[in-house]
Amino acid sequence: MRSTSYAIGAIALAAGVLSGCGASPTSSPHTGTATKGVPVIAATGSRAREYDSLSELAETSSALVVATPTGTLHDVPLPAEDGGTDESAPTTYVQMRVVKVLSGALDKAAIDVVSPGTDERTGEAALLSGGPYLMYLTPAMYDAEKPAGGYAITGGPAGVYASQGRPDVYSRVDTLSPRLPEEIDVSTTTLPTVSHTEAELLRAGPQ
Amino acid sequence: MKYMPTHGRLGPLRRASTRDVRGQTLRVTVAVVLAGLIALLLVTPSASAYQLIGCKWSHKHIKFYVPSPLASYGIWTAAAGLWSGLDANFVLTGSSPDMYGTNENRGNTVAWVGATRKKGTLQTPPPCPSGIYKHGKLEVVINWSKVNALGYGNPKKKMVAAHELGHAFGLAHTPQHPEWLMYPSDTGRTVKVSQPNDKAGVNAIY
């Protein structure tokens, strides 16, 4: 009887201790904490690499820009020779107005950028709204020397930072790149130079 | 505790109360120690802390179809074999498949080299109402042009495929464990085949 009361007490106390511990160990890690102005992009699939520094992002980019969404998007079907079928999902592009080129070369006022996923806050294509965004860009391509049109963000969610309203300060979007800086203040940070051309990156193929 | 009036004397009753207090203190102490131990066991990440998506199949023999003309056919079949000998397995068949394997040249238009998704979408997670994957709605895919551009050989392509099949079983990423197959990125992962903890996760699900 006494041992039973020990066990009941212990279990009750343990339950009390655990009640403040948050998520169950079996919950999916694919969740992010919503921060005002910062898209929450569901992390799907397995990535080839992790980006640990802005230098790594700059090395595989042709431009670092600040851009604002125009609020328009369009889809491009995956070509049949790249595995596209009638059932295949298209690639979704969001249109951006280029505010400033911080490094590298980009001479267009408006660009189409591949949306890096779905923004869980809105259910819309990520980067369709909000911003401005600081983005490391590379020419979108299906394969080496096979441009898809427009630009992709280097590393998908890894290469985009979002403004939360403070001038010149951008916050990290990616929840799976913890070693990238949480914030970039472009007025005080010396950013690694983007030096590759679009032609060089297209030749190297998708990274 | 109940105190009785003793008319100024606390003889036998007082001795009994002291024993009660000591006994109760002991019980509380033991309960607290036990509670701490139980909480520690449940909270501390253990060596077998595989992560689960919360989705599974309703049966143990999962019918998996990869069209043989596809470049990735041999990779998928070999990767399915890396998960053999467990409480659930993949059965390669074109007859009423539960799930499909494919490859696409998505290049850098997606961040992934491999994905487990709802069939017909780019990267939407597969549906699993009430925690059960829907028959015929799950697809695993390799970003073929990207793995080739990055110089992946067959063992590394099989690793990507086996990782996605881990998701198809119901395993989630284990970002704290690069020594397990379900670690989320290829550069950080130190193994190419499923490890005992990955397999334990599958057996736990099924």
Structural key phrases:
heterodimer; A: 207 residues; alpha+beta; eight-stranded antiparallel sheet; 3 helices; B: 206 residues; alpha/beta; five-stranded mixed sheet
Write the layout of secondary structure elements.
The complex is a heterodimer of chains A (207) and B (206).
Chain A: H1 2-18, E1 46-47, H2 54-59, E2 63-76, E3 91-104, E4 110-114, E5 133-143, E6 146-153, E7 160-163, E8 169-172, E9 183-185, H3 198-204
Antiparallel strand pairs in A: 2-3, 2-5, 3-4, 5-6, 5-7, 7-8, 8-9
Chain B: H1 11-43, E1 61-65, H2 73-81, E2 89-92, E3 99-104, E4 112-118, E5 138-143, H3 144-149, H4 154-169, H5 196-205
Parallel strand pairs in B: 1-2, 1-3, 3-5
Antiparallel strand pairs in B: 4-5
Helix pairs in contact in B: 2-4
Explain what you see.
The complex is a heterodimer of chains A (207) and B (206). Chain A has 207 residues and is an alpha+beta fold. Chain A has one domain. In chain A, strands 2, 3, 4, 5, 6, 7, 8 and 9 form an eight-stranded antiparallel β-sheet that branches. In chain A, strand 5 and strand 6 form a beta hairpin. Chain B has 206 residues and is an alpha/beta fold. Chain B has five helices and five strands, in the order H-E-H-E-E-E-E-H-H-H. Chain B has a five-stranded mixed β-sheet. In chain B, helix 2 crosses helix 4. The radius of gyration of chain B is 27 Å and the shape is elongated. Chain B starts with 10 loop residues before the first helix and ends with a helix. The N terminus of chain B is likely disordered. Strand 1 of chain A pairs antiparallel with strand 4 of chain B, so a sheet runs across the interface.
